Amino acid sequence: GQQLNQSPQSMFIQEGEDVSMNCTSSSIFNTWLWYKQDPGEGPVLLIALYKAGELTSNGRLTAQFGITRKDSFLNISASIPSDVGIYFCAGQVNYGQNFVFGPGTRLSVLP
Amino acid sequence: EAQVTQNPRYLITVTGKKLTVTCSQNMNHEYMSWYRQDPGLGLRQIYYSMNVEVTDKGDVPEGYKVSRKEKRNFPLILESPSPNQTSLYFCASSLTTGLRGYTFGSGTRLTVV
Asked: Which of residues 29-48 of A touch B (CB under 8 A)?
C-alpha cells in the first residue's frame, strides 16, 4: 500500500526558533493534511491543502503542497512551548478514498 | 459542539475477556474509522465504514470486529484480546469525500495483561 515518510522523526529546538518538517510519498496525492497531536489527545487538523503549489497559513504555521504532488512541507515560526507534540501528515489520492498517515514528527521545545 | 466521543478513555483488561470500545459522532458523518497508534509506527487503520452497514478492513484488522448499525455509532470489538493489542486507539469520522479531513476522538488507552 501507499506509504508516507516524515522527516525528521524527532527534533529538539529552542523556544523562538523556526521549525521545518516534510512529508514525502512515492504516490501522487490530491489532498494533503497536517495534524497535530498533543500528549494524551487525538490528532487535530491544522492545515488542509488541495492544489499543487498551494501555500496556506494558520497563524504561525505555514504548509505547502509540493509541485510534484508527492510531498508537502510544514513550517512553524517562532516556536513556543505549546507547539510540543507529534505532527502528522496525511495524503489522499482521490476524494472519497482513505487518507494515508505518515509516522509523525515529534517536536520538543526547550525553554 | 461537534465531536467524536470515545469510551472508555482508559481500560485495563485480561487476555481473552471480550471488550467493546464505543465511538459516537454528532456531525452526521458518513465515514468512520478506527486506528491504533503504537510508538514508532504512527497511525494504522484497523477498520473503516463508508456508511451504515458498510464496513471494510484496514491495514491491521486481525483480532478486531466492528459494526455500523447506526450512522452515529461505530463500536470496536475485541472478542478475545491479547497483549499485542495493548495500544492507543482512535476513532475518527468525516464526510464521505474526506475533503476537510478526519475528526478524531480523544483516544482509548487499552492495556491487555
From this structure: 31, 33, 35, 40-45, 48
Cβ neighbours of B107 in A, within 8 Å: 40-42
Element (H, E) at B112: strand B108-112
**What are the Cα distances from residue B6, in Å, to A52, B24, B36?**
35, 7, 13
Residues of A in contact with B98 (CB under 8 A): 31, 92, 95-99
pLDDT per position as a tens digit, B4-52: 999 999 999 999 999 999 999 999 999 999 999 998 888 999 999 999 9
Is the CB of B113 inside 8 Å of chain A's CB atoms?
no
pLDDT at position B65, please?
98
Q: Which of B19, B18, B29 is nearest to B8 (CA)?
A: B19
- B40, burial (CB in 10 Å: exposed 0-12, middle 13-18, buried 19+): exposed
Contact status of A93 with chain B (Cβ, < 8 Å): no
Backbone angles phi, psi at B10, to 5 degrees: -135, 140
